[in-house]
Automatic annotation (TrEMBL):
Top-rank taxon, per record: Bacteria
Record field: compositional bias (Polar residues): 221-245
Keywords for the protein's UniProt record, in alphabetical order: Signal
Signal peptide residues on this chain, from the entry's feature table: 1-33
Name of this protein: Secreted protein
Stretch list, region Disordered: 198-259
């Protein structure tokens, strides 16, 4: 998995329509046989808005997943204030993103693979993470989708999840199964699949489960406020980039068993 941290200068954006404090406004997925994505605003307030984009595509044939998390703030003008209309640079550790890859087993969506939380390493308003399933999809041939989760720190984590839509993988195979109409939602409890596409069981024989989406873990005591001096750059794996070259492991969901 590769991570790209793009710092962009602030620019004026078209003001977005006012709405609920926290909601998802999905954009249209492109009509392409090779990639499917959705994007939307998952948190909205007067001073902070979080936007998430989730993608599933063919990649090198085995599958590719991508999540973008973006931070916006209010744009103040002589004519008024416009929430969510200005990009909002955040210090290192203040934007978190996570990929969850789901596979359809014919009747329900199951978690197939996931990443640990990844945090921006420097000041930016956008944090992008990517993952490839090289060769073959991790849970066999079938329909796959990405649940992209992104959060921004502002004395607490604010954000949510967006579903990419579904894509048949590997891309060179012919789809013989009907496309699923349902999709997982943040907070749902789902089952877990192994590499053969079979449900994973715990040692006691009960089905292994996982919760869709959700916020990053609460930071350690090294955060006392929303200032760069108190950024989330602790020594624990949950609060730091996992390696110097920016690679973060895409884990098989079958390791999520418990006694």
């Amino acid at each position: 998995m590769r991570i790209r941290d793009w710092a962009r200068s602030a620019r004026t954006l078209t003001a977005v329509a006012a709405g609920a404090m926290a909601f998802v406004l999905l954009g249209a997925s492109p009509a392409s046989a090779h990639y499917v994505y959705q994007e939307g605003e998952v948190y909205r307030s007067n001073d902070l808005c979080t936007n998430v984009r989730a993608e599933i595509s063919h990649g090198d044939g085995g599958g590719y997943a991508r999540v973008d998390a973006k931070s916006y703030t209010v744009l103040a003008t002589p004519w008024g204030a416009y929430p969510c209309a200005k990009t909002h640079d955040r210090p290192g550790g203040y934007i978190a993103a996570k990929i969850e890859v789901y596979a359809w087993n014919g009747s329900a969506w199951y978690l197939c693979a996931y990443t640990d939380w990844a945090y921006n390493s420097g000041s930016t308003n956008q944090w992008i993470i990517e993952a490839w399933m090289s060769g073959l999809p991790y849970c066999g041939t079938g329909w796959y989708g990405t649940m992209g989760t992104g959060y921004v720190w502002n004395n607490n984590w604010f954000g949510g999840s967006v579903w990419s839509g579904h894509h048949w993988l590997p891309d060179y195979s012919l789809s013989a199964a009907e496309a699923p109409a349902a999709f997982p939602s943040e907070g749902n409890t789902v089952g877990v699949l192994d590499a053969a596409g079979e449900p994973v069981l715990n040692p006691d024989g009960t089905p292994a489960t996982a919760v869709v989406g959700g916020p990053p873990p609460a930071p350690d005591n090294n955060i006392q406020g929303d200032t760069p001096d108190n950024s989330i750059q602790g020594d624990t794996p949950e609060n730091s980039i996992q390696s110097e070259d920016g690679t973060v492991e895409l884990r098989p969901a079958s390791d999520l068993t418990h006694s």
